[in-house]
Structure formats: structure tokens, C-alpha cells
């Protein structure tokens, strides 16, 4: 599974065009942005009008945008109690959650969430000054086999080859924001080998 996450900024028409162009190489695009509900609904509608597949859009914790745009996926921060409640009330919606430790992954699994993002694996500009997860933390996470675990944090064209086996895919911000469809398709093929 390849999960793109938008940069935490106002999304533009250029973003619509870029993410629509790379859509064939990703499974989900998590919309993580400071935009208000009205602006984000407008952006989602723009993306859909440009041909971005609706079933690949995941909103980050904004239930209003999810409902107004009739999306099928939502992502929550680690520890957000809305994730479990939302999945229980809406079993047909794909619900994912960020995790940073094995106990959070187990809890997400017990709450029957669809997948988790786990990280960060490598140094990343998104977490300046914060050390990546240790080898022991990564191993503890990967011992949990009953929910897909997606690697996150500092994954780029060089570090993707260092992601430990056992992860069900990768998630990234910069990688998907800066690479084109050809590069991402090649990375995806290499990942599946």
C-alpha cells in the first residue's frame, strides 16, 4: 500500500493536478491541511472534477468534509478516541490512525481499524530533532500481524530500500509531493518485489 500525505499547507490547483497525475501509483491520499471545511470541500470537489478517484481520498479527522463530500476514508491522530467510535458507527468507512508504539497498534487492531501508519522510521523534516523509532520499537510493532502497518517518516527514493520487511506499505509526504508517476510506479514495482 502506498499512502501519500499532503504537506500541511493550503492546497492549490497545482496540488490537484500533481496528485491526480500520480493517483495510479497510490492507494490513498490523506488530506492533512490547515484549510477550513468550506475551502477543503471546494478543493476535494476540484480534485474529483479533475478525475482524482474518490475512493483514494482520505480526510484527516474532519468528519464534516468526509460527510459533505461523501468520501470513504478518514485518518486520525494517535490516541484520538474518535477513530474507534467512527469505525464502530460507520463500518463501511476506511478508518486509519497514526501510531508510534506497539500498544497503539494493538489498540487500533482491537478497535477494528483498517490500517495504521507507524513511524517515524528515519530522520524527517516533519519531526525535527526527534529521534526515529528504535530497532526494538520497530520489531515490537511488526510482531503485530492482524492489522496492516504502513511505514512512515523520512521515506524517500533512497531510504525506501531500508524499510524493514514486514510493513504492508509506505506513507510519505515529500516523496509523493515531489516525484512523478513514472518514478513512483517504478518504486511501487520494486517495493512489491
TrEMBL record:
Presence of keyword Acetylation = no
Give the pathway annotation. Answer: Cofactor biosynthesis; thiamine diphosphate biosynthesis
Any idea which UniProt keywords this protein has?
Thiamine biosynthesis
Q: Report the residue ranges that make up the Thiamine phosphate synthase/TenI domain in this protein.
A: 20-174
Q: Does the keyword Ubl conjugation apply?
A: no
User: Which InterPro entries does this chain map to?
Assistant: Aldolase_TIM, ThiamineP_synth_sf, ThiamineP_synth_TenI
Pfam families registered for this protein in UniProt: TMP-TENI
Name-wise, this protein is Thiamine phosphate synthase
The scientific name of the source species is: Staphylococcus auricularis
Amino acid at each position: 500500500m502506498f499512502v501519500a500525505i499532503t504537506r500541511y499547507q493550503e492546497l492549490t490547483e497545482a496540488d490537484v493536478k500533481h496528485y491526480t497525475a500520480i493517483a495510479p501509483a497510490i492507494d490513498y491520499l490523506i488530506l492533512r491541511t490547515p484549510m477550513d471545511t468550506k475551502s477543503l470541500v471546494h478543493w476535494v470537489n476540484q480534485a474529483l472534477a479533475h478525475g482524482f478517484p474518490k475512493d483514494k481520498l482520505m480526510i484527516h479527522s474532519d468528519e464534516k468534509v468526509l460527510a459533505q463530500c461523501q468520501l470513504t476514508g478518514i485518518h486520525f491522530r494517535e490516541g484520538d478516541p474518535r477513530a474507534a467510535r467512527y469505525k464502530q458507527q460507520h463500518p463501511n468507512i476506511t478508518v486509519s490512525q497514526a501510531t508510534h508504539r506497539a500498544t497503539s497498534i494493538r489498540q487500533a487492531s482491537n478497535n477494528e481499524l483498517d490500517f495504521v501508519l507507524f513511524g517515524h522510521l528515519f530522520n524527517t523534516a516533519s519531526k525535527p530533532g526527534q529521534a526515529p523509532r528504535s530497532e526494538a520499537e520497530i520489531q515490537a510493532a511488526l510482531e503485530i500481524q492482524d492489522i496492516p502497518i504502513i511505514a512512515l517518516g523520512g521515506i524517500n527514493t533512497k531510504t525506501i530500500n531500508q524499510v524493514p520487511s514486514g510493513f504492508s506499505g509506505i506513507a510519505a509526504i515529500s516523496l509523493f509531493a515531489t516525484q512523478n508517476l513514472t518514478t513512483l510506479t517504478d518504486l511501487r514495482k520494486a517495493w512489491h518485489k
